[in-house]
């Protein structure tokens, strides 16, 4: 039962939900999140970004609960500066999948996100360049064989037409211990098996002793749907595709109009 803000955990996707890559977090979102946390509410993010990118994007914005990063591969306590949980790809299988993709799509961009937040660029293109610049990620150009261990996920970056072809190609690859996920019009990822934002939310609630039914998820894209369905209440921003809105219990204003702040303010009014 929810009787006060302290009983709630609100989890927001980042890109095109909480913020935009070029404009950052709208001031109304920033102010309302700070007020929500000061009044006892718990707020965090669930994102495909690595920890350092989350920190760079949010700045001094408080997260009163550990963050779900790298698509669910890493749970990280931003306040304590501490990794709580990690999951990694089977290196050999992921290595073979990358080689197969590069043989079929020689111009595709390839990034590997490691546990410590560094991004290793195996093959650069204009999409990988835009990705690391917009998300403020520390990156190193590195041959595939020399990328250090502990891969949180792999990101393929290309135009939407190429990624549609890649999705069909990936369906025929061996994926033991991992799976493929389309996370953006320009990104297609390899994730560890059993790892997702939704699973990470369940683990986070167990670690923090928060009933799953007391969680609210705010999202904007297809890869947020499972996360939204796992939560007690699901919210979509107005810039989300129709299918995502249909999966939500309610729809708020768009990302640029401060939909996250709008929803948090409604909670503040309801419970204070």
Structure overview:
- This protein is α/β, with parallel strands linked by helices and 272 residues long.
- It is built from nine helices and 14 strands.
- A hairpin with a 4-residue loop joins β6 (109-114) and β7 (119-123).
- The two termini are 16 Å apart.
- The model has no long low-confidence stretch (mean pLDDT 95).
Low-confidence stretches: none
Helix content: 25-40%
β content, as a range? 15-25%
Sheet having the most strands: 6 strands, mixed
Order of helices and strands: EHEHEEEHEEHEEHEEHEHEHEH
Cα separation of the termini: 16 Å
CA radius of gyration is: 18 Å
Q: What is the 3D shape?
A: globular
Average pLDDT figure: 95
User: How do the strands of the widest beta sheet line up side by side?
Assistant: 8-7-6-9-11-10
Return the structural class: alpha/beta
Q: What is the number of E strands?
A: 14
Per DSSP, the total helix count is 9
Record the SSE blueprint.
Blueprint: E1 9-12, H1 27-38, E2 42-45, H2 51-58, E3 67-69, E4 74-77, E5 82-86, H3 91-104, E6 109-114, E7 119-123, H4 126-134, E8 139-141, E9 151-157, H5 160-170, E10 178-184, E11 187-192, H6 197-208, E12 215-219, H7 225-230, E13 233-237, H8 242-247, E14 250-252, H9 259-271
Parallel strand pairs: 1-2, 1-12, 7-8, 12-13, 13-14
Antiparallel strand pairs: 3-4, 4-5, 6-7, 6-9, 9-11, 10-11
Helix pairs in contact: 1-9
Quick summary:
By secondary structure, the chain is α/β, with parallel strands linked by helices.
């Amino acid at each position: 039962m929810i009787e006060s803000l302290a009983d709630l955990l609100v989890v927001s996707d980042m890109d095109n939900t909480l913020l935009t890559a070029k404009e950052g977090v709208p001031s109304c979102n920033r102010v309302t999140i700070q007020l929500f946390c000061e009044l006892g509410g718990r707020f965090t993010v669930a994102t495909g970004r690595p920890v350092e990118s989350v920190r760079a994007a949010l700045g001094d914005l408080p997260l009163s609960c550990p963050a779900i990063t790298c698509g669910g591969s890493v749970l990280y306590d931003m306040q304590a500066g501490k990794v709580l949980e990690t999951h990694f790809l089977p290196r050999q299988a992921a290595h073979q999948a990358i080689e197969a993709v590069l043989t079929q799509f020689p111009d595709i961009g390839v990034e590997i996100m490691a546990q410590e937040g560094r991004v290793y660029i195996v093959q650069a293109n204009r999409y990988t360049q835009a990705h690391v610049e917009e998300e403020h990620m520390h990156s190193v150009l590195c041959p595939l064989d020399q990328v250090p261990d502990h891969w949180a996920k792999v990101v393929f970056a290309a135009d939407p037409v190429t990624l549609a072809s890649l999705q069909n190609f990936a369906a025929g690859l061996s994926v033991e211990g991992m799976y493929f996920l389309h996370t953006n019009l320009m990104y297609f990822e390899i994730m560890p098996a059993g790892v997702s934002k939704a699973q990470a939310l369940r683990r986070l609630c167990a670690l923090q002793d928060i009933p799953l039914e007391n969680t609210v998820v705010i999202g904007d894209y297809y890869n947020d749907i499972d996360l939204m369905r796992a939560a007690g209440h699901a919210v979509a921003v107005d810039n989300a595709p129709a299918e995502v809105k249909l999966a939500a219990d309610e729809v708020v204003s768009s990302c640029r109009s401060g939909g996250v702040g709008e929803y948090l303010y409604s909670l503040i009014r309801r419970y204070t």
